[in-house]
Amino acid sequence: MSRTLVLGLGNSERRDDGVGLAVAARVAASAPPGVLVRAVRSPLGMLDIWEPEDTVVVVDAVHGGQPGSLHVLEVTRDPLPPQLGSGSTHAFGIAAVVELARTLHRLPRRVVLVGVTVERVDDGAELSPVVASAVDEASDVVLRAAGITEPGARPLDRRALPEPAAARQEG
What we know:
The chain is of the alpha/beta class. The protein has a six-stranded mixed β-sheet, with helices on one face. It has helices at 19-30, 94-103, 129-132, 135-145, and strands at 4-9, 35-40, 55-62, 70-74, 110-117, 168-170.
């Protein structure tokens, strides 16, 4: 049975590396029933969550470009560009996990990466201001990539949403 998963990757104790978790929490506050949103500390944890028939949108910190800029890539058919697969503090990055899943025939039918370019990944709990300002836009992009809102739809009215609930942490 096909499902839609939104996986926020990151470490909230390494500043901007926590952006995937912040976006996942925002998406969890506005996603319709049936959309599973999870926070995952290590990309390897994704292998235990997704199934081959799933649509998966992964949100993670990346390098490349202006801090706070977004990168959206469909990675089901083609490998991730190296500079985008290594922006966070994960020892085993998303690019390696996608390629491992591809080799093991465990890659979901559709995988989209929404990457947010980081500014800082040193010790600390707060996102840098420029990355924090990208969370709402990244959330809208995730919802569109997951097929939850129509392309070109107006951004969600954030004033009508409750404060983001913490997404359940996995692996």
